[in-house]
Amino acid sequence: MEKSTICLVSPIVILCCFSCINYVISDASDHRYKEGDSVPFYANKAGPFHNPSETYRYFDLPFCSPANVEEKREDLGEILNGDRLVVAPYKLDFLVNKKPESICKKILTRKEVDQFRHAVLKDYFYQMYYDDLPIWGFLGRFETKEIDDDDDLNEATIFLFRHVHFEILYNNDRIIDVFVRNDPNAVVDLTEDREVNVDFTFSVKWTETDIPFEKRLEKYSQTSSFSHHLEVHWFSIINSCVTVLLLTGFLAMILMRVLKNDFVKFTPDEEALDDQEESGWKYIHGDVFRYPRFKALFAAALGIGSQLFTLVIFIFMLALVGVFYPYNRGALFTALVVIYALTSGIAGYSAASFYYKIEGKNWVKILVLTGSLFSGPLFLTFSFLNTVAVTYNSTAALPVGTIMVIFLIWTLVTTPLLVLGGIAGKNSQSEFLAPCPTNKYPREIPQLPWYRTTLAQMAMAGFLPFSAIYIELYYIFSSVWGHQIYTIYSISFIVFIILLIVTAFVNVALTYFQLAAEDHEWWWRSFLCGGSTGMFVYSYCMFFYHARSDMYGFMQTSFFFGYMACICYGFFLMLGTVGFRASLIFVRHIYRSIKCE
Q1: Cβ atoms 534, 572 nearer than 8 A
Q2: 197 - beta bridge partners?
Q3: TM segments (predicted)?
């Protein structure tokens, strides 16, 4: 809580705060030990391997549990990440080898056998942290000829691993790596529904290595940097760059045509008469800057889009300076909460200033809309999904104390900054500065073909930006909703820049075609077309769920589609803002080049 409080001073302080966050939050901050010293060892959570959101406390399964389970104090980001660390039942002192040693002997009741049987059949894994190094292991294995449906699983032979072997690498007085292996012969048969006697054991072997301490996490970051992965990433970037070049050439041709038509206007001849139909955008100069309907909603959407754009830029900055290295527990969630709270002033300022530029009057209305347009759906989604997690007794369910902390951040930081930003935007006294005056009565829009309708243009506008990022989306999804590690933030940043450029260019082109067809209602159209990429991303979510993942069950499905809906909605608002701003710059530019009567 102290780190979060310090970070609330200014957005500029964010980089300093997070660059100082160490991935070590343990009892030994320098990670140096002497022979026989106790090393921090925590058990985290367990759950189905294919359902990363469906996790449970380690001792929810009937392992050897101490009389008093000692919990580790966690920060906000770790809790949001679903981490619930407790002291592990194993004692692995520094440089102390151990032959197979018993942790406990217990009789598993029929209910406990059924718990373990269900966990093995669902490929449950567990996660631990030894000296802040992550450890994973499976609970057991099962053997069966074929699995056509759940009924066939009842015929499987189910084995529970009862022995765990730890192999630990060290360099002088520091721990470099740790591996977990299960003895395939030390198993307990849980196939039959009866009580079982189990002797849980473990062993430890220490091995010296010359790997320096500073490079002990490199193996996690290098998994996403293998040559075959990099080739795919660079292919994605080249594909996106080709798209950008084609769009740039296309846009240049459009602008040249616009300029050509402007010159034709001053040199009338037969060619000008032929081209007159193509220059229909000039005829609507008296309507093109007519303010859109639902001005407050439009301004609020632009304000939230500006805030989310700033949030993404700050997240990329933190990622590029190395804050989000592998298994920096909860750092990303902490950054999201803190930066979102601090940037709410940007939303208030952007929304209020634009609202008053287009002659809005209700200051309270614009702030309420801005404060609830994104956080409202997010809160409703969280409430539903947290209720589901509570029902499942999952670690994904946030404790009441954490919910109160987030509520206080929203009440004491987000809302005041939103109001202050709104006051600053209201008092900015800036004008819209339209190049052409607006007619008193709107011009009638001619009948347009189906491919010029809003939905058709949204489909066209969203497809090209999505095609520039879809390859990279697979790796990001596999990291967020799987167990792959993603550390190539520089490539994702390049792809993000390409996404912005393609979105801007496509919207400028479509806005030009819309104005050329004498359709002057381009404000909302440009925003919707820019944000339509978010809808394509959500469609990709459905494809990824069914074709690229093995997720199952109501909880995991609801978490995946629920939170991805919020993320895609945020993308819709952010890219919609980018699309509108690009179109506004273009429209202002071309209408400055003509004489408005």
Answers
A1: yes
A2: 107
A3: 232-255, 297-325, 331-356, 363-385, 397-420, 455-476, 488-510, 522-547, 559-587
Backbone angles phi, psi at 473, to 5 degrees: -60, -35
> Which two tokens mark 75?
């920060």
Distant-in-sequence, close-in-space partners of 163: CB < 8 Å, separation ≥ 6? 100, 182, 183, 186, 200, 201, 202, 203
Instruction: Please give the model's pTM, rounded to 2 decimal places.
Output: 0.88
Q: Give 580-592 pLDDT, tens digit per residue.
A: 999 999 999 888 8
CA torsion, points 351, 356, 358, 359, in degrees to nearest 10?
140
Neighbours of 74 (CB within 10 A): 17
Q: Each residue of 400-458: pLDDT tens digit? A: 999 999 999 999 999 999 999 999 999 987 788 888 888 888 888 888 888 888 999 99
> How far is it, in rounded angstroms, from Cα 99 to Cα 411?
55
Main-chain dihedrals φ then ψ at residue 164, nearest 5 degrees:
-125, 125
Is residue 164 within 8 Å of residue 150, measured between CB atoms? no
Q: What pLDDT shows up at residue 166?
A: 96
Distance CA 532, CA 510 (A): 13
Q: Locate 357 and state its tokens.
A: 């530029």
> 329 is written with which tokens?
């527990």
User: Tokens 């373990």, residue?
Assistant: 116
Angle between helices 295-320 and 331-342 (to 10 degrees): 140
Burial 201-227 (b: 16+ CB within 10 A, else e): bbbbebeeeeeeeeebbeeeeeebeee
As a three-state string, the secondary structure of 285-298 is CCCCCCCCCCHHHH
The separation between the first and the last C-alpha atoms of the chain, rounded to the nearest angstrom, is 61
* Pairwise CA distance, residues 466 & 569, whole Å: 15
Pair 108, 198: CB distance under 8 Å: yes
**DSSP category for residue 68:** S
Q: Which tokens is 47 given?
A: 């759950």
Please name which of 296, 416, 289 lies closest in space to residue 356, comparing C-alpha atoms.
Answer: 296
Q: How far is CA 360 from the centre of its chain?
A: 34
CA-CA-CA-CA torsion sign (340, 346, 350, 351): positive
Token digits for 22? Answer: 């160490």
Decide if 375 contacts 330 (C-beta within 8 A): no
Tell me the C-alpha distance between 175 and 178, whole Å: 8
